[in-house]
Write a structure and sequence with these properties.
mainly alpha; 6 helices; rod-shaped
């Protein structure tokens, strides 16, 4: 049956390397990471070298002026308050586009209190803008419906647009 092994033969011990677990990081993983890193660095350098098209500020001002003129021409002559609201918005959009001025996002009081408002404009244009926006604000925020003519509000806004457009110093 089961005979006891009576020979005293010496066996080689197992290698200690068999007890060490296999590494989770293979050489192909290192090569892949290096390749992706080089690809990423190349893409960053290529995108950094790519130059953006320079915007001509004069062309942007002309386009903003034409857009504002078309919007002013499209105002319905229903009420002077509505005409003042629309005209003010159109002129503020023009200033935001043409002069990068934050007037579009400010209240009338914030605009008046900002000392560096319209610094690229001549003194006469700044004064005309202050008076024009004050006139529009008075029409917009009047307690009763203003007795002004809506057509006159749009005409004055067109004149203010031309004054602002011609008043650029830069």
């Amino acid at each position: 049956m089961n005979e006891p092994n009576s020979s005293f033969q010496l066996l080689e011990p197992s290698s200690p390397e068999t007890l060490i677990p296999d590494p989770w990081l293979e050489p192909w993983m290192i090569a892949l990471a290096l390749g992706l890193g080089l690809l990423l660095i190349t893409l960053v350098l290529l995108l950094r070298k790519k130059k953006t098209a320079k915007v001509d500020p004069h062309a942007a001002r002309l386009a903003a002026r034409e857009e504002a003129k078309a919007a002013l021409a499209a105002i319905d002559h229903q009420s002077p308050r509505d005409a003042a609201i629309q005209s003010s918005l159109i002129l503020r959009k023009y200033l935001a586009t043409a002069a990068a001025d934050p007037a579009l996002f400010e209240t009338h009081e914030e605009y008046l209190s900002r000392h560096e408002a319209l610094k690229e404009f001549s003194d006469a244009s700044r004064k005309a803008a202050g008076e024009g926006f004050s006139r529009l604000a008075a029409l917009k925020y009047a307690a009763q419906t203003p007795a002004a003519d809506a057509g006159e509000v749009v005409t004055q806004s067109r004149a203010l647009l031309e004054t602002l457009h011609l008043g650029f110093q830069g």
